[in-house]
Amino acid sequence: MRVSVKLFPATVLALSIALSGCTTSINSEDIMAHRVNYLLDVTQYQDAQWFDASIHSVEPFKIRFDDGIRASGVRLSVEGSKNTVIYFGGAPYRDQKSDVDILGQFALLGLNVITVRNRSIDSHGNWPTLTQLKEDSEMVYQAARQKYRNEFLILHGTAVSSFWVSKMAAERDDVDALVLEGGITTFEEFAEEKNHLAWLREKLDLKQKVDVDSELTSLNNYKSLELFEGPMLVLAAQQDSLVPSGLANKLYDASPSMKKAVKVVNYADEKDLMMRDDALAAYMQFVQTYGWKDL
Hints:
Elements lengths: L15 E5 L2 E5 L14 H5 L9 E9 L5 E9 L4 E6 L10 H10 L3 E6 L12 H18 L4 E7 L2 H11 L5 E5 L5 H6 L16 E4 L1 H4 L3 H5 L6 E6 L9 H8 L5 E6 L11 H14 L5
Parallel strand pairs: 2-9, 5-6, 5-7, 7-8, 8-10, 10-11
Antiparallel strand pairs: 1-2, 3-4, 4-6
């Protein structure tokens, strides 16, 4: 999930910027969700070049949230695989057709994957809050865990959704593994890297101090990761123009886990990280080392 007006292309979130005196302030009340134009349809995956009907199958994965909102997603299964990625950061938080390509990469690794296109604007014209998006993510995980009890579930969060998956990993004892892609430590540290806010140059005076709204400051991956001792992989793109790649090593150091790895992929950016061979190799090694093993 990437916060945007292009703050993160992995989401279609809108970020409102309020200027106050000599301070530039990021206000979390105006972090909104995405507009969903491309509905999930299993045929778009079945028609993909990478899809092999002899080993792949795809089915709808639907969920109804506590407030009655329904969300739809897909479950891609690879024959014989017990390792399943629950992917937050693709379909739930962006309005792009590249979701098909992302699932193809997981299929290439022999991994099942579940991804859900999350809620959009409601009938009253209200956008989801950060709290709603977090709770929705938790319900997606709970539904997947209940349905696929005998599979090794890997929570994969991109950018802002790294906060959701890390929190779940810290608070639950049934999270098998954690992957953070382009993850953020805290919004305070993120805001310190002003060169990554250059896209806001017309709205911000980047010479001023950037204050972060209290709701955003409550998101802290240091606190979550220090409670997680399970397998963890941190992926980052060296040329990520939106999230500083230097945060990857800080995320890695935050966890006391002895089963962890970090990979910063040279020459990659936020758009093609999961398309790079180095990233796939790191993912494959991680799953082979810590994932499901047939006895």
